[in-house]
Amino acid sequence: MSGPTPPIQPLGSAQIPALLDTWATHRGRATPRDSARAAWGRPLVERRALLEGVLRGSLHGAGERSRALVAGRVGTVTAYLIAHEVRLPRGSGYRAYAPDHFLSIGGDDWGVADPRAADLLADLYAEIAAWGLARGADAQLLAIPDGDDCAEFWLDLGFARQDRYAFLPRGAERPAPCGLTVRRAGPADLERAVHFTLAEAHHHHRAPIYAFAPPDLDATRRRDMAENLDNPATIVLLAEADGVALGGLSAFPLAGLGGWMPSATPTPCLYIDSAFVEPTARGRGVLRALVAALADLAEQRGACGLFVTYLPANRGAARAWTALGFQALLTVHQRRLDPRAARQHRTPGI
Predict the structure, then answer these.
(1) Does the residue 265 lie in any domain?
(2) For residue 129, how many C-alpha atoms fall within 13 Å in the half-sphere facing its CB?
(3) In the chain, what is the greatest distance between 2 CA atoms, to the nearest angstrom?
(4) Shared-domain flag, residues 187 and 65
(5) CA 21 from chain center: how many Å?
C-alpha cells in the first residue's frame, strides 16, 4: 500500500473498537464463508464479543507481562499485534514441546485490515520481539488460523509449524469398522492405558524438532493416567480384538473456551488428550473405532463435537486425523531466536 506509514503506539481502550473492526475484517477475509465450518464454528459476532472482553480485561490486569501494539491513525487500526510473556512452571507437560520462557501470540492477537499492509505486521513484530528479548524470552509461539491469507508472511519471518488444532463436529464421524470392541478402561487397566499414552509420547519425541523429553515424563504420564482412571469425568477407551488391546484414547470434557483454544471452537466439546494405535494394528480402523465410540459419548453428553491437537511433524497422525474428518482450526507456529541474540539484548535483572 502507498502513503505514509501509520505510527505505531501501545493499545489503549479508545482504540479497541477500531481494533475489533480490523479483527472482524481480517477474520472474515480468512474464514471461507462457503465452507462447512460456517455451519458449526462459533459465529464471528460471538467471537468478537469474547475478544472485546479479553482486551478490556488485559488493559487492566496484564501489567508488564503483555505487550499490545497498534499501527494506525486517529479512529483507525491498520494492523495490531499482542504478545503475552509465558514462563512455564517446573513439571509442566508443555515443556516437552515449548521452551521454558517464550512469547505467546494467539490467533486473535494479530490482524491487518488489508493483506497489502502486511509489512506493518513486520514492524510491529520487530518491536514485540525486541521487548521479549529484553525480558529473556528467546522464542515466540504464534497461532495462524486455517486459511489465513497472511500465513506465508509469517513463514517468511522464520516461523515453523508446531501444533495443529482440529475439530470434528457432532454427526460427522465415520462409522466404526466391524471386528473391534471399544470399552471404557477402569483402574484395573492401568498398565494397558499407560502403555498407550507413553507410546504416543515417545513417538512424538522422535520427531526431529521435538527431541526433548523431560526426564520425569514416564512417571508423570503414569501418575496422570492413574488419576484419569479414577476420575469419572475423564474418558479412557481401549480398542480390542479377541481380547488383545490394539489402541487407546483418553479425553476429557471442556465446558467452555480455555485461553489456549481457538475462539472458533464450539463448546462444550470433548478434548482428545492422547491416542495411539499399535503399529502392527494400523490400517484396521482402530483409531476410527475409538473416535466413533467417543463421538457416541459426546452426543450423550450434549457436546458439540470432538477437539484434538496433533503435531504436523507426525506425518502419520496428521493423515489419520484428516482422514477421520477433523477440520483444522489453526496451527501454532514456533520461532526460536539465536541464543546469542537473547544474551545480547536481554535487560539485566529481568
Answers:
(1) yes
(2) 21
(3) 72
(4) no
(5) 24
